[in-house]
Design a protein that fits this description.
By secondary structure, the protein is mostly beta strands. The chain has 1 helix and 33 strands. The protein has a domain of about 150 residues: Methylamine Dehydrogenase, Chain H, CATH 2.130.10.10.
Length: about 400
C-alpha cells in the first residue's frame, strides 16, 4: 500500500470503526476502592527509592472523596546505563545512582525541570530541560554542566540523542536538533499546533538508525531524517471528533511503541492504532483514549485508558483477551510486561500486578509517591511520579 493510500485508510478506519470502546468520560466518578488481594505472589520487591515529593496515604479512606483522577499528561523519566541511573526532579535536582541506589553525584540547577533525562549512546552526557525552555547537558560522570541552549518554549518530554544530535519537541510544536558536543542548533522542523491541546508531549523515538519519529499535538507522527531534519513522511493517527476546540483535541502525547515492524499509537481523542510499517497496512484500530504508551510482549499489547481501564489485546488482531475496570479513575500509569505478569501503577502510589494470561490480580505494592510512568529493564521495574520521584523494584521470577 502506498503511503498516501495508507494514510487515507487510517482515517477511514478511525471514522468508521465499530470495535470495542474504551472511551474517556465526561462524568465525575470516585476512584475505585482497592480490590481485596487474597494472597500475594510477591512478584516485585522494593530495592530503593529517591525523592518522595508526593505524600501518599497509607489508607485509601483518606482519598475516597477524590473524584475522577485521570492520567498525568506529563511525567519524568529516569535514564539508565551500565553504571546505574540518572534522575531529575521538578525542583531542579539531578542525581546519579549506582545499581543499588548509592548516590554518585548530585547537582541542583537554578530553574525547575520539566522533563526526564536522556543519555547519549556512549554514556558521556546527560541532557535535561528546565522550566524556561533551556536544554542543559551535564557530564554523565560528574554532573557538571557542559553547555546550555535556550529554546523558544519548554520541552516537556526527554530528548532523543543519536549521531551527535539532541532532538527535542517543544511545547509550541517545534522539533529541534542540537549538537551534542556544543549545544549549537543544527536544524528545526515546525509543526502545526492546534488552538487547544493537552499540556504534554511524547518522547521522540527511533524508526531506524537514520530516522526519528515525533508525535505532535495535531495528531500526527512525523518521520524526519536525524541528520538534517528533512521530512520523510507524515501521517495522522489522532482524529478529532467534534466542532468545539475541546472536541478537536487529538494529541498523541503517549510515546509511540515500535515493536518489530508494528507501530502502536494511542491518542487522547480515542484511537489505539496498530500499523504494520513494513507492509504499510493497518492491523487494527480500537477506540481507546489515553495519555500513556502501550506495553507489549511476545503475544499481547497492554493499554490503560483515561478512565482507568486496563486492556490486554492480541498484538496482531486487536482481539481483547481480557480487561478490568477495578482500577477505574485511579489515574493509571502505562502498563508494562514483566515476564508472566503485567504491572500498572496509579496516582495513589500503588503498583498492581496481574497475571498476563488470565488477568487475575496477583500482587500489590505501595510506593512512596504517585506512579505516573513505569519502565522495565534488566529485571528491574522502575516507577516514577509526575514530579520525578523514583522507586526501583526487583522482579522475582
Amino acid at each position: 500500500m502506498k503511503p498516501a493510500v495508507f494514510a487515507t485508510a487510517l482515517v477511514v478506519a478511525m471514522t468508521l470503526t465499530g470495535c470495542d470502546k474504551f472511551k474517556k468520560s465526561d462524568n465525575v466518578h470516585k476512584p475505585a476502592a482497592l480490590v481485596k488481594l487474597a494472597s500475594s505472589q510477591n512478584v516485585i520487591s522494593p530495592l530503593f527509592s529517591q525523592g518522595s515529593n508526593t505524600k501518599v496515604s497509607k489508607r485509601f479512606g483518606s482519598l475516597r472523596n477524590k473524584t475522577t483522577i485521570s492520567q498525568q499528561p506529563t511525567a519524568f523519566r529516569v535514564a539508565y546505563d551500565n553504571n546505574g541511573y540518572v534522575n531529575a526532579l521538578a525542583d531542579g535536582s539531578v542525581q546519579a545512582f549506582d545499581g543499588q541506589g548509592k548516590v554518585l553525584w548530585s547537582t541542583k540547577l537554578k530553574q525547575g525541570l520539566m522533563s526526564g533525562v536522556a543519555l547519549d549512546e556512549q554514556s558521556r552526557v546527560a541532557v535535561v530541560s528546565d522550566s524556561k525552555g533551556v536544554i542543559i547537558a551535564l557530564d554523565r560522570a560528574t554532573g557538571k554542566v557542559i553547555w546550555k541552549t535556550p529554546l523558544d518554549t519548554a520541552t516537556l518530554s526527554p530528548a532523543l540523542i543519536s549521531q551527535n544530535r539532541v532532538i527535542t519537541l517543544g511545547n509550541d510544536g517545534k522539533i529541534s536538533a542540537l549538537s551534542l558536543e556544543s549545544g549549537a542548533p543544527i536544524w528545526t522542523f515546525n509543526t502545526q499546533n492546534p488552538n487547544l491541546s493537552v499540556r504534554g508531549s511524547a518522547t521522540p523515538i527511533f524508526f531506524n538508525r537514520n530516522t526519528v519519529l515525533v508525535s505532535t499535538a495535531d495528531g500526527r507522527i512525523h518521520a524526519l531524517n536525524i541528520d538534517n531534519g528533512v521530512p520523510i513522511w507524515s501521517k495522522r493517527f489522532g482524529i478529532s471528533k467534534g466542532s468545539s476546540d475541546i472536541e478537536k483535541i487529538s494529541d498523541v502525547d503517549a510515546t509511540p511503541v515500535l515493536d518489530g515492524n508494528m507501530l502502536y499509537v494511542v491518542s487522547y481523542s480515542g484511537q489505539l492504532v496498530a500499523a504494520d510499517m513494513a507492509s504499510q497496512q493497518l492491523s487494527f484500530v480500537k477506540e481507546l483514549a489515553s495519555l500513556k504508551s502501550v506495553g507489549t510482549d511476545a503475544s499481547q499489547v497492554y493499554a490503560t485508558s483515561l478512565d482507568g481501564e486496563l486492556v490486554a489485546m492480541d498484538k496482531i488482531t486487536g482481539t481483547v483477551n481480557w480487561q478490568t475496570d477495578n482500577l477505574s479513575y485511579r489515574g493509571l500509569s502505562n502498563a508494562v510486561s514483566i515476564g508472566n505478569y503485567v504491572v500498572v501503577g496509579d496516582a495513589m502510589g500503588y503498583l498492581h500486578v496481574y497475571d498476563r494470561t488470565s488477568g487475575a490480580l496477583v500482587d500489590r505494592k505501595q510506593a512512596k509517591s504517585d506512579v505516573a510512568v513505569l519502565q522495565f529493564i534488566n529485571n528491574r521495574l522502575i516507577a516514577q511520579s509526575a514530579n520525578g520521584a523514583l522507586s526501583v523494584w526487583q522482579v522475582n521470577r
